[in-house]
Amino acid sequence: MSEFTLYAAILLVVLILALALFIYKIRANKIIQTFLNSHDNILILSDRHKINMINDAGLKVFGYESLKSFLLSNVDISNSFINNEIDNDAIDDNKKASIPYIDRYSYGKNWIDTIARSPTKQVKVKIFSKEDLLDQNYQITVSKLKFSNQYSLSFTNISQLEAKRLSIKKQAEYDPLTNIYNRVKLDRLLRDISFDVKKFNQEATLILFDIDHFKSVNDDYGHNVGDSVLIELSGLVRISLRPEDIFARWGGEEFVILLKNTSLKETTALASRLRQEIEKFHFSTVKDVTCSFGVTEFRAGDTERLLFKRVDEALYEAKENGRNQVVTK
Fold it and tell me: Are 154 and 196 within one domain?
């Protein structure tokens, strides 16, 4: 056999092997794609930076007609992750055991690898589904495939579970009548702010106020009208506060406003404005309602109990001095 014939034979074998490998990869990809499409969850195969395969369920949610159009778009699906800080509030008390929500900015371009290296290998995301035009909640589980640089991503729809969780959370933390924070939630937030004040030397202040002669409202008009006054009052106050201000029903006709990074002078001015707004507001049935205010600030050595004792004394003084006024201590 000549040297040329030998080279030709080797080349032919190489070509046959390459063709066989090519056919094998095509068939293997078809088998993998069929497997992915058999699942209702969104399933994705990806390396660190690029999506390589996605099933039909994922194409529908992200708004693509085919795998080809999806791959040609070269899209990073993390761009679809919506900010969900409100839901993240629910995990603040148990961060180690909880699965956080992330958005498009949380982990940057290496978000897949970051999740894969995390203890739980899971995150939650909120995505606007282009299939049903609704925000949907998903829990993503990322697994590194053995003997490969690829990852498998499984998106489980947890929207119903999250809706139930948020409903339970709301019942536990919100006053059902006024739809503002309740005392349980306020106590938790107060502990956190007290810690920040002491550790970072931040300013924080407290307003305690209640409705003057509220018992007479209930006695003269009935408890339904009294409830209406509480609802109207809480709505009036809420629109006068900043988004970061904490507003809670302390109990009965008493309310608390907790303000971070706010001076005592600024807080006293706010209490005065609120007093005036309430005084000139015409309530549905009762028409005229006034409130008395106590104001104080966090001081060195304060505990939550000392803080509330001082603001309660300020409120008591406002009541004793004739009501419908602000006293600062």
Answer: no
User: Is residue 202 domain-shared with residue 287, that is, in the same domain?
Assistant: yes
CATH number (domain holding residue 54): 3.30.450.20
What is the bridge-based pairing of β-strands 326-328 and 291-297? Answer: parallel
Q: Which of the following is catalytic: 162, 232, 253, 297? A: 253
Q: Give the domain extent around 217.
A: 174-328
- 168-203 pLDDT, tens per residue? 888 889 999 999 999 999 999 999 898 888 888 889
Q: Does 253 qualify as catalytic in the annotation?
A: yes
Task: Identify the CA nearest to 302 among candidates 176, 165, 191, 158.
Answer: 191
* Pairing between β-strand 291-297 and β-strand 204-211 as defined by DSSP bridges: antiparallel
Longest dimension (CA), the chain: 118
- Bridge partners (DSSP) of residue 43 are 154
* Whether residue 314 has pLDDT greater than 90: yes
CA–CA separation, 246 and 99 (whole Å): 26
Spatial distance between the Cα atoms of 77 and 68, rounded to a whole number of angstroms: 15
Element (H, E) at 128: strand 122-129
∠ at Cα 192 (168, 163), nearest 5°?
A: 20
**What pTM was computed for the model?**
0.67
Phi, psi of 148 (to 5 degrees): -155, 160
- Residue 48 sits at the vertex; the CA angle it makes with 46 and 49, to the nearest 5 degrees, is 85
pLDDT digits (tens, 9 = 90+) for 36-57: 888 899 999 988 778 888 999 9
